[in-house]
């Protein structure tokens, strides 16, 4: 498609939505819902997308996209409310925001901080949209050259990198979580020979494990248990004054917005890593590059802008691998992938051929979702703040009921509820032992892709692994996987430490631990 | 070593053992799948076998679990991995009580009430028990209301196993309504003269009545999704809808 055609598709999609009052209503409603999900500690963007997936099942794809992207963008931004006003991050993505947001609110500048984060989040999302438009077609073109060899390695890469980057304790816990997800994905009839695997006589398992109940269980149930078990009580939110940010404040912070957006897009495009990592990395970078690093943690606008811009820019980044390769860039994007599959859309290299114009349609909806977020953020924030006073022990049981009806409604199958509870309780214990959940979920989603493509690849090569070492993309992916894993091995750390010692004649600061630390 | 890390390594040792059992089970089960013999009239070769991928995952999981065990043993020492690091018993008891209460409440809803009782009634009973136990008066109601919901879940499930569904659906539904009434009375009685608790109780009542009804209406009549069990409330609402729209 040429540029003019692209523009016409984009503006056509924009116009279609704006001409329909119903679509605008859904957009605004889902955006507010997203902000509420983000603002309420205990609810997350992923859970919001998961629960809304159920409601959008019967809708046409374009309407479902409006609702899902509306809630996604709104929820990532909404996390800043609780961070700034009550010092409890509404979502993990907004955790870094509380470091400077709350001190600002204590100084009576909560409204200004919120106004600035609203605009910064909007600008961050816009940069994410631009990145999506620029890079997705390029990656799609490249991905069209991929065969089963590359797809198998891509799936493996997605799971392993997600496991590596999201582990807070030992890195192998991330890999184990990924392999548990892969193990779950093997349940049911295999797609090549239709042979029933691990069904143990339960006919409900024959069609495999449904992704949505697993996602709702893995993200919803642990959240309910964790918050209520720890007796999280919310303090009274700080008062808001002026919310609309001054133009010069935005101009003054423009360079932070641009830098943080780049960081957000970059981190978002790494499979399974997500908005929380983007927020922290951007915050850390802003602090390191700041002329006044001593102000960070005491109420610095730079800090608030850095984390909030990055986490929203991350959405665009996360959509790039999701749409072009079928690999979700973040946990909410994983849920979005589940929703797209339910609507008969198979994201991946063929999307440009099967559904031409889909990327531009997503871009148009994404842009409107960002605009709706800004409008709601600026004009409804005083009302949203009131929701922060709802006790967690009242709304979390309601969320529990929503998880139940949400898991049931997609397949109309009681068995999905049992699955949701079992996965949820197991996920809770895994989280308690500091296993990340994103790799598990990504494993469940990418498992069939890895299984099918590995066997297809071996079928083509008559059982030979040679082609894996002959194709450039395969070699690059294998090098990245090996490097990523080996840099976590104690032997590498010892070697690095020795090298530093030899080069600089110094004692290494890190990496000297012995044994299997894998941290 | 930091106490939390010690605790984690203690848990890692146990998880490692469980994962090894799972991985060995997975490998054992996968080895029973056709590897090179014929299945469905097709002569198999190892690289298209349905066992290939589960075997790879099982082996990787086994290796990783072995590493996890090794890390745990190296960190805590052999005797240390068997002995649980000390934790504050009072805090632990309180956290465990809340954990198991939540799990029991959700399990009772999903395994007991939802498959056997009208969704609106099941939701009302669940929310009433949950919110009163955690919000209204946790000190006195946490254990009692969790137990009551568990008892109602078991009773309703037994009724459904006994065939009290479809034409007889009104029996478990009425039973669940009686449980709701008893739970309401029981929770009200525990409040004493505390005005704050009474306000909380009214909020709990409102949420427990409005939310399941609203969800039932949205899913059944808005999204046209049949609910897991439709009985006294949903069926009557449907009859009412037909009567009004006829």
Give a description of the structure.
The complex is a heterodimer of chains A (519) and B (246). Chain A is mostly helical. Chain A is built from 22 helices and two strands. Chain A has a two-stranded antiparallel sheet. In chain A, strand 1 (188-189) and strand 2 (196-197) form a beta hairpin. Chain B is 76% helix and 2% strand. Chain B has a two-stranded antiparallel ribbon with strand order 1-2. Chain B is flat, with a radius of gyration of 26 Å. The mean pLDDT of chain B is 88. Chains A and B meet through helix 8, helix 9, helix 18, helix 19 and helix 20 of A and helix 1, helix 2, helix 4, helix 5 and helix 8 of B.
List keywords for this structure.
A: mainly alpha; 71% helix; B: mainly alpha; two-stranded antiparallel sheet; 9 helices
Q: What integer value in Å does the Rg of chain A equal?
A: 23 Å
Global mean pLDDT of chain B: 88
> How many β-strand stretches of chain A?
2
Helix content of chain B: over 70%
Q: From the alpha carbons, calculate the radius of gyration of chain B and give it in angstroms.
A: 26 Å
Judging from the principal axes of the Cα atoms, what is the shape of chain A? globular
Low-confidence stretches of chain B: none
- Strands of chain B, total number: 2
Order of helices and strands of chain A: HHHHHHHHEEHHHHHHHHHHHHHH
Largest sheet of chain B: 2 strands, antiparallel
Weakly predicted, low-confidence segments of chain A:
510-516
Task: Tell me the major beta sheet of chain A.
Answer: 2 strands, antiparallel
Based on secondary structure, the structural category of chain A is mainly alpha
What's the quaternary structure here?
heterodimer
User: Distance between termini of chain B?
Assistant: 74 Å
Largest interface: A-B, 63 and 70 residues
**N-end to C-end Cα span of chain A:** 47 Å
Structural class of chain B: mainly alpha
In one word, what is the shape of chain B?
A: flat
The percent range for helix content of chain A is over 70%
Strand order of the largest sheet of chain A: 1-2
